[in-house]
Amino acid sequence: MTTTASVELTLRDISAGAAAGSSCSTRLLDAPWDVDREDPGYGPGASMADAIPAVAPRQGEIPAEYREASAEELDRRIRAAKAELGDRVVVLGHFYQRDEVVQYADYVGDSFQLATAAKARTEAEAIIFCGVHFMAETADLLSTPEQAVILPNLAAGCSMADMADIDQVEECWEQLMEVLEDEGADGDALAPVIPVTYMNSSAAIKGFVGRHGGIVCTSSNASTVLAWAFERGRRVLFLPDQHLGRNTAKAMGIGLDEMAMWNPRRPLGGNDEQTVRDARVLLWHGFCSVHKRFTVAQIDKARAEHPDVRVIVHPECPMEVVDAADEAGSTDVIRRAIEGATEPTTFAIGTEINLVQRLAAQHPQHEIFCLDPVVCPCSTMYRIHPGYLAWTLEALLRGEVVNQVSVSPDVAEPARVALERMLAAKPAPLAGSAR
Ligand code: SF4
């Protein structure tokens, strides 16, 4: 794995005046343990302006030997620990993780691919997930009880997942049931609402949807899952990403006038009762601060400068950006589109910078650039640094498990039900599912 495309190296070039462009925060060059010492926050990067929940996990200070080690020493120690642990450990690296960490991963992929990969490695006693908190929880849901899932920096949360808090979702559900209590009284087989949650949500939210007849989706299967939900319910409550929900529902032919936003800070989500009754999709007021940065103006500029450009964006981008792009799809769709291009092509990509720069380095036959010219990685993914990985691996060598993420059985059971429904869902035509 090359490290020449690393965002960290690009940031250093920018700060040294050797590269054009700019970064959203010069604090990205600080060591993550400096950020760990501060008041809780997401840290520098795309989510730095988002409000972090008071209960968000904190990362304690790791020993000085890891904070003060050079990159070369950390590299030597990580490789030595991995070699000694052998099959006892599996290291997972998310597509958005920086190359300084991804180079040690046994598997690189999106959150669900990684959790599934970990599930197949039953001989591994420990799964080190170099991603964010909800991903480690999902790996714990899918792994065996004997396996420990480790998040190298507990402060690596996800601002989007944190936007749907379980208490707010329970409160929302109560309000919806009050408004819709008369539905179903006439023997209608359809439930008033089916809750659907994006994989990027806490285990508590996955458990909630599992308990209420709902289902999990990924950015790859969201339309299949929505069709599944409309076969069972009159409307969908889509958590927590409004953009994935809106983009998916719109592509399925559901009008914008049939969608309503649910703002958890306002009574009835900021709606009147009739709006809730008329809605087919209720969109939770969540978003990804990485994908919110992409704009139609960036696409217009890319087209003006590169007339043959192929613009592909992630469906977590706002609707007008998805509409202006040539294609929209998950990280895996983006990766496969580039791998499948047989002629040299110019790609403008709307997703996290670490993945875009890695794809550009892996495919020099194409010109690949990020739509957003400002280097601004996912804040929380960036909280993981080789120092934390060395610390967790060497703890395992001593027989210690640090930073374990485990989901309590009362949450895990219904969350697994919601995941199993997703795995069993088959594409279905929407026409047969309209209310
Ligand atoms: S890219 Fe967005 S959704 Fe993904 S982990 Fe970062 S903040 Fe969360």
From TrEMBL:
Cofactor(s) of this protein: [4Fe-4S] cluster
Keyword Cytoplasm among UniProt keywords: yes
Subcellular location: Cytoplasm
Annotated positions binding iminosuccinate: 94, 111, 198-200, 219, 314-316, 331
Main location: cytoplasm
Keyword terms of this UniProt record: 4Fe-4S, Cytoplasm, Iron, Iron-sulfur, Metal-binding, Pyridine nucleotide biosynthesis, Transferase
One MF term in the entry's GO annotations: transferase activity
Bound cofactor: record note: Binds 1 [4Fe-4S] cluster per subunit.
Pathway: Cofactor biosynthesis; NAD(+) biosynthesis; quinolinate from iminoaspartate: step 1/1
Pfam families xref list: NadA
Binding site for [4Fe-4S] cluster: 158, 288, 378
Catalytic reaction list: iminosuccinate + dihydroxyacetone phosphate = quinolinate + phosphate + 2 H2O + H(+)
UniProt EC number: 2.5.1.72
HAMAP family, alphabetized: NadA_type3 (MF_00569)
Family to which the UniProt record says this protein belongs: Belongs to the quinolinate synthase family. Type 3 subfamily.
Its job: Catalyzes the condensation of iminoaspartate with dihydroxyacetone phosphate to form quinolinate.
Name recorded for this polypeptide: Quinolinate synthase
Species this chain originates from: Brachybacterium rhamnosum
Lineage: Bacteria, Bacillati, Actinomycetota, Actinomycetes, Micrococcales
